[in-house]
Amino acid sequence: MSKITVRSGKGEITVKKSAQFVGVKTKDDEDIKNKSFVKDEVIPSLGGFQVVTLEQEGETVDKKLDEVRAREDVAVGTHVYYAEGSNKPMVPTGEIFIVFEDNVGKEEQNVVLEEFALALLERRDDTTIVVKVTENSPNPLKVAAALQKISLVKMAEPDLDMPLTEYFTGPSDELVPHEWHLENNGYVVDVNFRLRKGADAKVIDAWRRLGNTGSSQITVAIIDNGFDLSHPDLTGKIIKPYNVWDRNTNIPQGNPQYTHGTPCASVAIASSNGQGIVGAAPSARFMPVHGTSFSVRDTEEMFNYCIKNGADVISCSWGTTDSNFTLSPLKEQVIAKAAREGRNGKGCVICFAAGNEDLNYLNYYSAHPDVIAVGASTSQDTHASYSNRGSQLSVVAPSNGDWPIIAARASWDQGLSGESGNFKFWRDGRSRGANYKHFGGTSSSTPLVAGICALMLSANPDLTAKEVKEILQSTADKIGNSYDYTNGHSDKYGYGRVNADKAVAEALRRAEKPIPVPVVAETVSTGQGLFRFDVERQNASGYGVQIGAFYDYGNVLIQAEKLQRTFGQPVIVNINELNGKTVYKVVVGHSDNRTTIGNLLKQVQQGGYPGAFLRNLADLA
After folding, report:
1. CA-atom Rg of the chain in angstroms
2. Element housing 61 (H / E)
3. What is the rounded average pLDDT of the residues 114-130?
């Protein structure tokens, strides 16, 4: 079959048609399996199509698809493709994202659209548009490939969808009935197996510090497939559910192909209801977002929905390490938007699974700089052998690999194929209840970290997403060997195994401190009263600690009095002009010894000014 080369992510892929699979959209509500032309349903939703095999009866897939397209009950039919070197089926959604060269006007752009009979869906700026093929258009992949050769076009990327890997590792070791990942006492209650005491996420310690199990004002969104909304640990806490594939609030129930979302959600937020298990943040609200997708449009839809509907934390236990499918700039942008603009500008905290392929690079989604990339550690505080490694790894969290996790089970979950009885769900065949099962992989460690992030925001809701990531990394426990770490980071462990208690303690500490002074503070209404001045000119030499800059003189007086009282150091004020305004840069301390000022800097940062920095006074002259 002929091959087509198109843009994908930051590179190009060469694709060819599947010899057996096609994608179909029907006009009626009849089950696709009941259609006479369908042999088997393969994937119920991919790029808006249902992927099926056809009753070909010796005909080629091309000819049979043409026959299907001509049917009155079929709206659209498409070929399914494979990228070279990949075994994942791929469907073009029909949309193409086009970026024209600078100074290409709308009239010239319209000429290009007319040439290929494309319909304009969305204009994002003067050069960026989203279009859709029409009945008179060629194949969307051929259109994209042709557009890329036109001198007016800088980039043309067809929107493609493919099944993403759900990062679940089937249990290979025996399990315990208790949630050792929350607190590990070094033993297994119902099985003769020793764990490493303390090899846990310190979640119960964090609850003790908080005095509760988190806040019901914090919402955790789980983007996945297969949420059992009637599960006793999930029902009663659901808020604003959403189906990305169908663009409505109806979460599909009962499809045995989709069960992954239920255990993922339970590890993060399972209710404390006197039965079953408890998630890391059992008081948090649960936003189920059904419909993982590689499609640009769907990726934008899922993250924009979380932004608009108040998700504080977003947990994603899926992705891809297939080099054919790196993230395009459009996907990177929407993830960055959620991480920076969500929560009214504080940013949604986004956790992604590093992946279970035992590779020396991460799932491409988790490698995004605004994401918390989560790997897996074991009940012995070792690296889980399946967990991907890489320089972008943030932290690891307890999962299976030595002793597994217990999580919620969807009522329609059929368990492990090839097993029978309780062994379908429990490695040792000992049932711990019909609502639960063994679970693990980075699919489990990721929602565990998401739940811990919810605890941190319960302690201090003013934390930004960037601060949450920094705190998680800086408070993590170094596990493994010292030589695994370079400058505090390990490709195997990130910054270490997450420690919920330390992270919550730091979140609380920051909540108790004054808000850090911005680089240029706005006017304040205080600063009146009686002040004693002892003013002398300062030579522009040596070093000090700058804590901020102010437009308002009253604020300078407040800070000067406070700094002298707190640190017992002289206060130096640089008076200058910035954008037509007088600006006062406030520096505390002075010494020609850089080390002395470096020690003072640590005191000042710990004393309520984390944004303070060392200032060479010569730079203020």
Report:
1. 28
2. helix 61-69
3. 94
Mean pLDDT, residues 452-464: 96
Tell me: the pLDDT tens digits for 462-515? 999 999 999 999 999 999 999 999 999 999 999 999 999 999 999 998 886 433
Q: pTM of this prediction?
A: 0.77
Give the residue among 141, 82, 146 at the shortest CA–CA distance from 324. Answer: 82
Torsion sign (Cα): 413, 414, 415, 420: positive
- List CB contacts of 472: < 8 A, sequence separation 6 or more: 372, 394, 395, 449, 452, 453, 456, 495, 498, 503
Task: Quote the distance between the C-alpha of residue 194 and its chain's center.
Answer: 34
**CB-based contact 23:50 (threshold 8 Å):** yes
Per the CB < 8 A criterion, the answer to whether 94 and 296 are in contact is: no
CATH architecture of the domain formed by 165-511: 3-Layer(aba) Sandwich (3.40)
Specify the CATH architecture of the domain 520-620: 2-Layer Sandwich (3.30)
pLDDT digits (tens, 9 = 90+) for 6-17: 888 888 899 999
Instruction: Check if 165-511 and 520-620 are the same fold.
Output: no
Q: How far apart are CA 405 and CA 398, in angstroms?
A: 9
Mean pLDDT of the chain: 89
Q: CB-based burial of residue 44 (10 Å sphere; 0-12 exposed, 13-18 middle, 19+ buried)?
A: middle
CB of 272 closer than 8 Å to CB of 446: no
Please state, in angstroms and rounded to a whole number, the distance separating the CA atoms of residues 460 and 481: 33
Alpha carbon 431 to chain centroid, angstroms: 33
Alpha-helical regions (H) of 93-169: 106-115, 140-147
In the chain, domain spans: 1-161, 165-511, 520-620
Contacts of residue 457, defined as CB under 8 A and 6 or more positions apart, other chains included, come to: 215, 218, 312, 313, 349, 463, 468, 507
pLDDT in tens, 429-440: 889 989 999 999
Residue type, 72: E
Residue 105: phi, psi to the nearest 5? Answer: -75, 170
Residue 340 tokens, joined: 């920076």
Q: How far apart, in Å, are the Cα atoms of 591 and each of 83, 337, 621?
A: 63, 43, 16
**Alpha-carbon gap, residue 100 to 104, rounded angstroms:** 6
State which CATH number among 3.30.310.50, 3.30.450.20, 3.10.450.50, 3.30.70.80 fits the domain covering 1-161: 3.30.70.80
